[in-house]
Amino acid sequence: MTTRYLEIRQGVLSKNDRLAADLRARFAQAGVFVMNVVSSPGAGKTALLERVLRELRAAGWRVAAVVGDLQTDNDARRLARSGALVSQITTDGMCHLEVDLVTDKLAGWDLNALDFLFIENVGNLVCPTWYDLGEDVRAVLLSVAEGEDKPLKYPVMFHSSDIAVITKMDLAEACECDLTAMRENILSVQPAIRIFETSAKTGAGVPVLIEFILQQRAAKLASTSVPPTA
Amino acid sequence: MHELAIAAALVESVAASAQAAGAARVTRVFLKLGALSGVSKEALLFCYDVATRDTLLEGSQLVIEDVPVTIYCERCRAEAILSGIQGLRCPRCGELSSRLLHGKELEIAGIEIDVIEEAEGER
Questions:
Q1: What is the pLDDT of residues B61-89, one digit of tens each?
Q2: What is the domain count for chain B?
Q3: Strands A33-39, A116-120: parallel, antiparallel or unpaired by DSSP?
């Protein structure tokens, strides 16, 4: 018996990362733009997505959503009212979505028939951080009722996100939310993040977010399409 | 307790590498853990013993190297190691930096394994 050292240099979650890369390639080939939506429970993921799905569909886009929850399919039923294709993943206690759950859920779907896919993650600002789901954009939501210092309490999630959406803006005044401090705190843990402000109730700010999503999809299609041969 | 899921993924990955290398057992696992990885060292060590049970890693030691957050400050044109993770500000000039060089690591650096040597004459 001999003892030896074996160099590995591999991420602990390399299996999830590898599967996510496969899924990302499938999304790219099908031309689907994918957003992974994360937040604490009650920040308004479902309410915002209800609005976004409805408006995108009204504009003629083909949209779908996959919803993760520990229990119940209430959120999926709410989102399905928009007319979009919606499927629920009940994690039965697991606090985050992993990519194989999403891949399984999409098994019977024709991705080519979609323009946008939204993945509503389990409400949790910690555990979903590590799990790449093959998304193009990770959006972290933070409601005005949650306290300006939340990004400082959960820096890892905010750091790992591409955009931050401050939700429930219609309640900002009632909650005495210091929006300047909230924005500063978000930027201090992720200086490269882009911040949006929305109210799913009034619809304020939603068009700006949708415009961003449309631009991102167009940019994705432009970068993944094969350039014409000369 | 996401550390249990992380520990399970760690064990699965290490066991696969160890098996491929023909290891009889794993004695030590070297892990790089960034301050911004979001994983608690204590919780991970606690879960490690549970996750390694009945595997090639049973009884092995998890050796964790803490990796602090390192940013590159454009204004100072220099790297800076941060003491915390609440703000990615250069400790010299106070400028925010989005260039993160280290601190997100959740990486298996290497493993120490016991290998049964091939008998003389074989191969």
A1: 999 999 999 999 999 999 999 998 888 99
A2: 1
A3: parallel
